[in-house]
Amino acid sequence: MQSLVQSKNRRAHRGSLLAIEPMSAIDIKSLLQLARKMNPLKPSARLRGKRVLLLFYEPSTRTRTSFEIAAQALGASTTLVLSSGSSVEKGESLLDTAYTLRAVGSDAIVVRHPHSGAPQLMADHLDIPVINAGDGMHEHPTQALLDAYTILEHKKKIAGLEVTVVGDIYHSRVARSAIHLLSKLGAQITLCGPPELLPEVSATLAENLRITRSCEEALRGADVVMVLRMQRERLAGLKISLPDYIARYQMTLGRLRLAKPDVLLMHPGPIIRGLELTWEVADCAQSVIVEEVKNGVPVRMAVLAQALGTVN
Amino acid sequence: MSTKEHKPASLLIRGGRVIDPLARVDGLMDVLLRDGQVVELGPVGKVRGGAEENFDARGLIVAPGFIDLHVHLREPGQSYKETIASGTAAAASGGFTSVCCMPNTTPVLDSPEWVTWVRQPQRGAVVNVFPVAAATQASKGAVLTDFRALQRVGAVAVSDDGKPVLNETTMRDALRASAEINFPVIQHAEDTRITQNCSMNEGRASFRLGLRGMTIAAEAAIVDRDVQLAQQFNGARLHLAHVSTAEALKSVRRGKRNRARVTCEVTPHHFSLTDADIRGYDANFKMNPPLRSSEDRQALVEALSDGTVDAIASDHAPHALHEKIIEFERAAFGITGLETALGLAITVLHLRHQIPLERIIELFTSGPARVVDLRGRGALLRGSHADLTIFDPKKRWTFEAAKSRSKSHNTPFDGWQFTGKVVATIVSGKVIYRAA
Ligand SMILES: [Zn+2]
Which one of A52, A97, B178, B180 has the minimum C-beta count within 10 Å? Predict the structure, then answer.
């Protein structure tokens, strides 16, 4: 029993990526720079012999496959552990699962978990890098990095950009990571949504942040528009009805026209056409939704390369 | 720690600064204890008769024994977290001579039989244990327990602590019964209908951490309702456990102004920490009510200072490692607190906020004694129980959770430097704890 306490590290392994919030702008930029050097189409042996363990307590298609492909492109092997059908289901604690995965020879653990802070808990007790692939409502750091990477493919720099985030910010780990990252890199951020999904306290998350309830106001002059996923079940119990939400916040071509002509339309996926955005918006010329998915691979290659210490 | 080694029938505590807020005593004095009672207080060297044993208290403060209104001793049923023996050992090293233990055990202390069981000598308590019995059967909030029968076997109050008495009719009935037999009802004020899945205070910190937050209203609304109910029954006694918000204090003040018999307690962690202190999802910062904002903390300090608050209570809530070293949202609520209460009170309230020592001692002694009518305790009057706490208000020390007497070590204060340390704890005239 005592050993559990004593095994707590002073801090997480330095290769860990747990959140954007504690990162400096320099850290973020150097990681993005590294990502630009990664070529998913050209296999490399950079991480040969390394074992990357993917521990997913929540279903995920894009993040999981993106990490798998990224690891394999660097020559690492991957093992996927899903919470269903494993010892996790039998009530094993998160740390015991972590110790077991460490003991079988994992060199890094990528974890997706429904509880905020779960990756931090693992990192505090392990001597290998832990990479957060999304924890509860907290953060999804690699998503924010791939969003920044995508923006930088189209815009010279993030500093000074007008970025609008629309939708369910309260429940969104994607939003928290994106807000931290974009704010650190100097973007002006406007958050837009109903009070239930965008409480006033959201404005305290970072600098350069403002809130508006009007979609039209939020979009005017935007360089980047990020639409968040709207989960139907989240609306249950709130004052706002689904038709109301759609009427006020759905991204339509008409609304998108309020933004700058060269606006980038982003969405972390999975999208639900007809809910948070229309079919036409999802496929419009300004949409970079598919690019985001594609860019996830080099970004995660960079994260893994950094985690496993093959970067100086 | 053994209580058997020395049992002097008389003990003379010499040369300490005796502070007894109730008796309005503050000065260098000798205190003579004999046969479990305070026999005499007098000028240094002038107490007649002598004693079989002497205690040199020069440079120390001699106070009435501290009373903790709110501890979880976990027996019966959860002895893997704490036992009455280990919990009271922790109490002794924290300077507490009496503790009121909460009924949320397994089974719940809702019958005279279980209240009696807790008080039996074979439990191994080293300080006085005064059980708080459940207010409703199995603390389910529906059917009131038999207050009179529980009072008769030694329960000092009723409470469903851990949860609130949510139903207004039930609370009304409880306060009516309280008025009839002069028996305090202790409320854990939380509207649990709006705190489900919440693990900390609602605010900037919870938003940042991505954790669902309990609103201030969840506490304040129940406090407000109960204070209003207490005003309706002449003589009803309402005690509000672990008040944590400025808003709830407003209702307490209103109740007191309107001469309702309303009392309240504040915990050391709520007057010392805020939700901004929660670092790295460490569940040793998770308790209920949660750590609040700095405005709330400041309001608690003011209320401790101005007399609104009647007692400092630890809400000592031990939990095993497997209940704490897990995901924050899944972790148990509560932290240990018996051994850090005085250190926090002196370090935070006295040194940082200039609250006089006399007032702090009042909050540990006559204040809580009055809340649950502990006759002959909380003051050093001739004939009162010889329960005393002797401490060094200037001693600097570092708290090490691993050395705690409690069976559990779930504290956010591990490694904290405190000023103010317990030197000896005396129960019924016997030194049951002495600092190394
Ligand atoms: Zn409570």
Answer: B180
For B8, B34, B174, B284, the CA distances from B53, given in Å and listed in that order, are: 7, 10, 48, 42
Q: Residue B301 maps to which CATH number?
A: 3.20.20.140
Report the separation in Å between the CA atom of A135 and the middle of ligand 1, taken as the mean of its atom positions: 29
Task: Give the Å distance between the CA of B265 and the centre of ligand 1.
Answer: 11
Distance from CA of B422 to the nearest CA of A (A): 27
Distance set, CA A266 to CA A284, B125, B187, B356 (Å) = 11, 64, 50, 60
Question: If pLDDT is split at 50, 70 and 90, which confidence band does A231 have?
Answer: confident
H helices present in A109-219, as ranges: 118-125, 141-154, 173-184, 215-219
Return the residue of B nearest to A96 by Cα: B326
Burial B287-313 (b: 16+ CB within 10 A, else e): bbbbbbbeebbebbbebbbeebbbbbb
Whether B106 and B30 share a structural domain:
no
**Predicted confidence (pLDDT) per residue in A105-153, tens digit:** 999 999 999 999 999 999 999 999 999 999 999 999 999 999 999 999 9
What is the percent of chain A with per-residue pLDDT over 70, rounded to a whole number?
94
A31 CA to chain B: closest CA distance, Å?
Answer: 23
Please tell me the distance between residue B112's alpha carbon and the centre of ligand 1 in angstroms.
22
Residue B328 to residue A201, Cβ atoms within 8 A = no
Residues in A closer than 8 angstroms to B409, CB to CB, are: 5
> What's CA B261's distance to the chain center, in Å?
19
Query: Could you give the residue numbers annotated as active site of B?
Result: 315
- Distance CA(B123)–CA(B430), nearest Å, equals 19
Contact B424, B66 (CB under 8 A): no
Specify the CATH architecture of the domain A2-139+296-307: 3-Layer(aba) Sandwich (3.40)
CB pairs under 8 A between A and B: 71
- B57 and B69 share one domain: no
Q: What is the CATH number of the domain that holds B36?
A: 2.30.40.10
Whole-number mean pLDDT of chain A? 93
Residues B42, B133, single domain; the answer is: no
Fold equal for A2-139+296-307 and A142-293: yes
- Which pLDDT score, from 0 to 100, does residue A9 have? 52
- B328 and A116: CB-CB below 8 Å? yes
- Mean pLDDT, residues B30-57 taken together: 92
Q: Which chain A residues are Cβ-neighbours of B205 within 8 angstroms?
A: none
Listed in sequence order, the residues at least 6 apart from B419 whose beta carbon sits closer than 8 Å to its beta carbon are B343, B346, B347, B351, B393, B394, B395, B396
Cross-chain CB nearest to A116 (options B322, B329, B409)? B329
Q: Is residue B5 part of a domain?
A: no
Best mutation target, B80, B216, B281, B319, to test chain A (most A CBs within 10 A): B281
Mean pLDDT computed over B141-154? 97
Residue of B204, B327, B328 lying closest to A201 (CB–CB): B204
Tokens of A14: 């330095």
B280 and B296 in a single domain? The answer is yes
- Tokens matching residue B294: 């700095």
Instruction: Give the Cα separation of A150 and A155 in Å (integer).
Output: 9
The residue extents of the domains of chain A are: 2-139+296-307, 142-293
Residue A11 pLDDT: 74
Q: How confident is the model at residue A6 (pLDDT cuts 50, 70, 90)?
A: very low
Residues 319-338 of B with CB under 8 A from A: 320-322, 325-330
Could you tell me if B27 and B111 lie in one domain?
A: no
Q: What is the pTM of this model?
A: 0.94
ipTM above 0.85, yes or no: yes
Whether A93 has its CB under 8 Å from any CB of chain B: the answer is yes
Gap from CA of A286 to ligand 1 centroid (Å): 54
Domain that holds residue B58: 10-62+385-405+414-434
CATH of A142-293, one of 1.20.810.10, 3.50.50.60, 3.40.50.1370, 3.10.20.580: 3.40.50.1370
**How far does the CA of residue A45 sit from the closest CA of chain B (Å)?**
35
In B, which residues are within 8 Å of A125 by CB distance? 325
Q: Is the pLDDT of residue A26 over 90?
A: yes
Position A237 confidence tier, pLDDT thresholds 50, 70, 90: confident
